[in-house]
Amino acid sequence: MKYDVFGVGNALVDIQARVTDDWIAVSGFEKGIMTLVDDETQIAVLDRLHGVPLHRCAGGSAANTVVGVADFGGRAAYAGKVGRDAIGDFFLQDMRSLGVAIDTPPAESGPTGTCAVLITQDAQRTMLTNLGVSAGLSEADLDEDLIRRSRYVYVEGYLLTGEKTRAAAWRAIELARKHGCRVAFTASDPFLCHIARDEIWDLVESSVDLFFCNEEEARSLTGLSDAIECAAELHRHAENVAMTMGSKGSILMHGGDAIPIEGVSVHAIDSTGAGDMYAGALLYGITNGMSWKQAGHLASHAAARVVTQLGARIQHKFTRQEILEFMK
Questions:
Q1: Whether domain 3-10+60-110+133-325 has CATH 3.40.1190.20
Q2: pTM of this prediction?
Q3: 275: exposed, middle or buried (Cβ count in 10 Å: 0-12, 13-18, 19+)
Q4: Among the listed residues 32, 38, 96, 42, the one whose alpha carbon sits nearest the alpha carbon of residue 70
C-alpha cells in the first residue's frame, strides 16, 4: 500500500476543556502558548479540572495532521511513542480506527504523553504538555518501509526539543531523501522558532520541500514584519512555503509565485488544531490531484471548519462532492 503522508511526532492524548480567563490566570501559565510541564504539574492540572466536561482524542501536531489527511480520504501513516497503559491503548485504537497505519512499539515503562488544552471564550488555547514516553521516540522506532512507500514525510518541529526525538526527526528526513520522498516540516510554535532558529533554518535550506508556519513564526525566523516579505524570504530558501495568518487567510509560495488564499469567515470557539488541519488538507490536496491554489482553498475551509467546534478533529467531515468542488 502507498501512503500520501507519513507523519512523525510526539504522540499525545489531547484533553480539552473550556475554562475562564481567571482559571488560566490563577494557574500561573501564560495564556495562548504551549508550556511543557512535568508529571506532577500535569496531574495537578487534571485534578483541578475534575467536574469540568472533558473531550479527549489522539493528538500531537503531526498526529492531527495525518488524521486530517485520512479524513479527506487520503492514505496516512504515523510514528509516535506511547506507553503500555490505558491512555496509550486509547491513542493507538483512536488512530487506527481512522485508518492511520501506526506500528511504533510502545515503551516498556512510563506514562503516555498528554496535552491539557485549555480553551477560553476568545477561542485561544493554552496548552500544557507532559511529553511522557513520547520523548523517547528514537531512530529505531521509524519503519523505513512505511517511509519508502510514502509520497511525503511530515515532521513536526516540536521534535527538536529533545535529544532522541531530534535524532528521530533528522533520521526520518534522511530516509525520505534516500527513498525519493518529499519532506514537509512545520515550525510548530513561536517559542521553538526562538530557541531553535538556527537548526530550523538549517533544515529549511538543506532538506525541506514544503515549510509550514504561521505569521508569528515567520516573523521570528526572518526578523521581518511584513507578511508577504516574510513569506518571500522563506521562499528564497524553501521550494514551497505555506504561511497561515488566522482569519486573514494564508499565503502559499510555489514556483516563485505568491498565491494568496482568503480566510473563511466563521464564529471561532476553539483554535486547537487549526494549523494542523490546514497542513493535513493542503498535503491531501497536493498529493491527490489538486493544484496548489485549489489545495490552499480546501485547507482554508478545513481550518475554518475545525475552529467552529471543540477539539482538533472535524466533526462534520467534508463530503466527496464538497472536495470535488474545490477541484473545479
A1: yes
A2: 0.91
A3: buried
A4: 96
pLDDT tens digit at each of 328 positions of the chain: 799 999 999 999 989 899 999 999 998 899 988 888 998 999 899 999 999 999 888 999 999 999 999 999 999 999 999 999 999 999 999 999 999 999 999 999 999 999 998 999 888 889 899 999 999 999 999 999 999 999 999 999 999 999 999 999 999 999 999 999 999 999 988 889 989 999 999 999 999 999 999 999 999 999 999 999 999 999 999 999 999 998 899 999 999 999 999 999 998 887 778 999 999 999 999 999 999 999 999 999 999 999 888 777 888 899 999 999 998 8
SS3 state of residue 75: coil
CB burial of residue 294 (10 Å; 0-12, 13-18, 19+): middle
Tell me the three state secondary structure of residue 32: coil
Using CA atoms, how far apart are residues 14 and 131, in angstroms rounded to an integer?
Answer: 11
Using the structure block, give the residue that is written with the C-alpha cell 486530517. 68
Domain ranges in the chain are 3-10+60-110+133-325
Please, which residues have CB within 8 angstroms of residue 133's CB and are 6 or more apart in sequence? 81, 82, 83, 88, 106, 107, 109, 110, 111, 112, 113
> Cell for 120?
477560553
Contact 183, 207 (CB under 8 A): yes
Q: Positive or negative, the Cα torsion across 199, 201, 204, 210?
A: positive
Helices and strands per DSSP (H, E), number in the chain:
13, 14
- Report the DSSP beta bridge partners of residue 101: 77
Q: Which helix (H) or strand (E) holds 68?
A: helix 61-71
